[in-house]
Write a structure and sequence with these properties.
58% of the residues lie in helices and 0% in strands.
């Protein structure tokens, strides 16, 4: 359970102490993607090579597709499949994706870093 807390808290995958991101708040748009160079505790390099986090874009894409499919399944179960509601689903899903975009961004970067260093 502590590994899950470290992952959600944005801590180092090796020691679980150092913070990966400079800002704790993912909705701080000025520092949303600013990553520390290395862990303050164990000195693990958070940016091992140029373009390391390009793979995280695929993870973010998969997360948003899964989130949209889940929203579609829930709305279909609640309201049934009607053509008039498809437009509303698209609008609501787009708004939800915009709201959760910083969370998906951080989650995908953390997942990519944890998979690469485990």
């Amino acid at each position: 359970m502590s590994k899950l807390n470290d992952f959600i808290g944005g801590r180092c995958p090796r020691c679980g102490v150092g913070k990966v991101f400079e800002s704790r708040n993912p909705y701080n748009f000025y520092k949303m993607n600013t990553t520390h160079k290395e862990c303050s505790n164990c000195h693990l390099d958070f940016i091992p090579e140029i373009g390391f986090y390009w793979g995280a874009t695929y993870v973010a894409y998969a997360l948003t597709v899964a989130f949209s499919a889940f929203n579609f399944a829930v709305s279909t179960l609640i309201f049934g499949f009607m053509n008039s509601l498809n437009f509303y689903y698209v609008i609501v899903n787009a708004i939800l994706l915009l709201i959760f975009c910083p969370l998906f961004f951080r989650f995908s970067r953390m997942l990519w870093l944890w998979v690469a260093h485990d």
